[in-house]
Write a structure and sequence with these properties.
Elements (H helix, E strand, L loop, with lengths): L1 H8 L5 H7 L14 H12 L2 H14 L3 H25 L6 H8 L2 H38 L19 H15 L2 H27 L14 H12 L19 H30 L9 H13 L3 H34 L18 H17 L6 H25 L14 H15 L3 H25 L6 H7 L1
Helix pairs in contact: 3-9, 3-11, 3-13, 4-10, 5-10, 5-11, 5-15, 5-16, 6-7, 6-15, 7-8, 7-13, 7-14, 7-15, 7-17, 8-13, 8-14, 9-11, 9-13, 12-13, 13-14, 15-16, 15-17
Length: 479
C-alpha cells in the first residue's frame, strides 16, 4: 500500500495523451482562432506595462543608472526560460502551459505544485496590476478632468481606504471581454498593445532629446549587489511572456506559432524596457526617479517639451497598458485552471466550455471574482514579490522539464529545440534560483505557507480525484 501511495505522487501523464486531450475534453472544446500576431501580442500584452509603469520607480533606488542592467539581467533570466518554454510549447501545445509540461515530465505532485505556483504568477499578479491601474486612472482623471476617485474607493484598507473599487471595475470589465470569446479578446488586446508600444516609443524619442551623459555617472553607484537586488525586483516586469503558451488549444498552428510568439514577445518587451530605462535615467538624475514611476516619466516629458499634453498622453497610455495586462493575464489563469480541471485535480466546473462563445465561462467568472476581491483589499507592495517567487519556481521546473523530456522521450517531434542544450535549460534553472535569492525573507515565508496550503489541498482532494487515479479502462476511454 505504501509503495502504491508513493508511486501515485510521481505518476506522469503521457505526452501523447496530453496532446490528444488538447482537441477537447468532457467539458467541451475550445476554438482555434489565433494566429502568430495575436499570440505574440497576447504575451506582449501580458508583459509590457507593469515593469515601466509600476515597478521601475521601486528598482531605480536600488541600482541607480544601472537599473538598465537590472532589466537586462532579468531579461537574460527570462530568456533561458523562454527558450525552454518555446521547446515545450511546440512539443506539448495545450492550454496548461508549465503545469502540463511538468505533468508530462516530473509527475503529478510536482505538476500540482507548479500549477499552485501559477495561481501566484497569474491570479495574484493580475491583482497587483489592477491595484496599479487604479493609481494611474486617478492620475489621468486628475490631469484631464481635475477630479479623482475618492481615496476610500481607490485604496486598500491598510492604505486608509475602504476597498479599491477602481481595481474591481477593471477586472470586471476585462472578465466581460473574455466571456465574449478568445478571438474577440485578442482583437481588443491587439489594439491596446499597439497603442502602448507607439506611446513608449514616443516617450523614448522625446526623452532622448533631453539626454545628459552626466546623469549616468557613476553608472553603478550601489555596486553589483544593488543591480542584483533591482533585478529581483524588476523580474516582476517580465512575468507574462509565457502567456502565449496558455493558448495552445486556441492557436491555429500551435507547433509553429507558439515558440515564435514566446521568443518574439520577449525580444520586443526587452528592447522597449531597456530603451525606456536608458532614456529615463539619461534625461533625469536617478535620485529623482523614485516612487511613482509614471509621475517621473511625465515630469521628463514636461521638462523636455515644456508642454503638458505629452504628460496627459502618457497617463492615458499607462491606463491602457495596464488594462491589457489585466486582460491577458486573466486569460492565462483561466486556461491553466481549465487544464487542471480536465485532469481532475480541481473541480470539474472549471473545464466546462460555453458552446456559444467557446470559453470556460464559469471558470472565467470565478477567476474574475477571486481577483477582484484580492485587488480590492490587498495593497500592491504585498503582491509583487509573492508573484515573482511563484513564477521563478515554475520557470525553474520548465527548464528542468526540458532536460527530463529530452532524456525520456528523445523521439518526440519538436518544432523548436532550445539551442546549446543542455546549457540553456541548466542556465535557466541557475538564473531562476539566483534571482530568487534576492527576494526578501518574508517573501520566502509567504511562499512556503502557500506551498503548504497547496499540499493540503492536493492530499485532501486532488490526489483522489485525479483522472490518473481512475481504473485504467476509464482513463483510456476518457482519452
Amino acid at each position: 500500500m505504501a509503495t502504491t501511495f508513493w508511486q501515485s505522487l510521481w505518476r506522469t501523464k503521457p505526452v501523447d495523451a496530453i496532446v490528444r486531450e488538447g482537441g477537447g475534453g468532457e467539458g467541451g472544446r475550445l476554438r482555434r482562432s489565433m494566429g502568430l500576431v495575436q499570440l505574440t501580442f497576447f504575451s506582449v500584452g501580458a508583459t509590457l506595462g507593469t515593469g515601466i509603469f509600476v515597478v521601475m520607480g521601486e528598482a531605480t533606488p536600488l541600482a541607480g543608472p544601472a537599473v538598465v542592467l537590472a532589466f537586462l539581467l532579468s531579461a537574460v533570466t527570462a530568456l533561458f526560460s523562454a527558450l525552454s518554454y518555446a521547446e515545450l510549447a511546440g512539443t506539448i501545445p495545450v492550454s496548461g502551459s508549465s503545469y502540463s509540461y511538468t505533468y508530462a515530465t516530473m509527475g503529478e505532485l510536482v505538476a500540482w505544485v507548479c500549477g499552485w505556483c501559477l495561481l501566484l504568477e497569474y491570479g495574484v499578479s493580475v491583482s497587483a496590476v489592477a491595484v496599479g491601474w487604479a493609481q494611474y486612472l486617478n492620475d489621468f482623471l486628475a490631469k484631464a478632468f481635475g477630479f479623482t476617485i475618492p481615496h476610500a474607493w481607490s485604496q486598500a484598507p491598510d492604505k486608509g481606504g475602504v476597498l479599491n473599487l477602481a481595481a474591481v471595475l477593471v477586472v470586471a470589465a476585462m472578465t466581460l471581454v473574455l466571456l465574449r470569446g478568445a478571438s474577440e479578446s485578442a482583437r481588443v488586446n491587439t489594439f491596446m498593445v499597439l497603442f502602448k508600444i507607439v506611446l513608449l516609443l514616443f516617450f523614448c524619442v522625446v526623452a532622448f532629446t533631453g539626454f545628459r551623459s552626466g546623469n549616468l555617472e557613476p553608472f553603478v553607484p550601489l555596486g553589483i549587489a544593488g543591480v542584483s537586488a533591482a533585478g529581483a525586483q524588476v523580474f516582476f516586469s517580465y512575468i507574462g511572456f509565457d502567456a502565449a503558451s496558455t493558448a495552445g488549444e486556441e492557436a491555429k498552428n500551435p507547433r509553429r506559432d507558439l515558440p515564435l510568439a514566446i521568443v518574439l514577445s520577449l525580444a520586443i518587451v526587452t528592447a522597449l524596457y531597456a530603451l525606456v530605462a536608458l532614456a529615463s535615467v539619461g534625461a533625469m538624475p536617478w535620485q529623482e526617479l523614485t516612487g511613482d514611476t509614471e509621475a517621473s516619466l511625465s515630469a521628463i516629458l514636461t521638462e523636455v517639451t515644456d508642454a503638458t499634453w505629452p504628460s496627459l498622453l502618457l497617463s492615458a497610455g499607462a491606463v491602457v497598458a495596464i488594462t491589457s495586462v489585466v486582460l491577458t493575464v486573466l486569460y492565462g489563469q483561466t486556461r491553466i485552471l481549465f487544464a487542471m480541471s480536465r485532469d481532475g485535480l480541481i473541480p470539474r466546473i472549471f473545464e466546462r466550455v460555453d458552446p456559444k462563445h467557446s470559453v470556460p465561462a464559469a471558470n472565467t467568472v470565478m477567476v474574475g471574482v477571486f481577483v477582484s476581491v484580492l485587488a480590492a483589499l490587498v495593497p500592491l507592495d504585498h503582491l509583487t514579490d509573492a508573484t515573482s517567487i511563484g513564477t521563478l519556481f515554475a520557470f525553474a521546473l520548465v527548464n528542468a522539464g526540458v532536460i527530463v523530456l529530452r532524456r525520456t522521450r528523445p523521439d518526440l517531434p519538436r518544432s523548436f529545440r532550445a539551442p546549446l542544450y543542455p546549457l540553456t535549460p541548466v542556465l535557466g534553472v541557475f538564473f531562476c534560483l539566483y534571482v530568487m535569492r534576492g527576494l526578501r525573507p518574508v517573501t520566502w515565508l509567504v511562499f512556503a505557507l502557500w506551498i503548504v496550503v497547496g499540499l493540503v489541498f492536493y492530499f485532501a482532494y486532488s490526489r483522489r480525484h485525479s483522472r490518473l487515479a481512475r481504473p485504467e479502462k476509464e482513463v483510456s476511454d476518457a482519452r
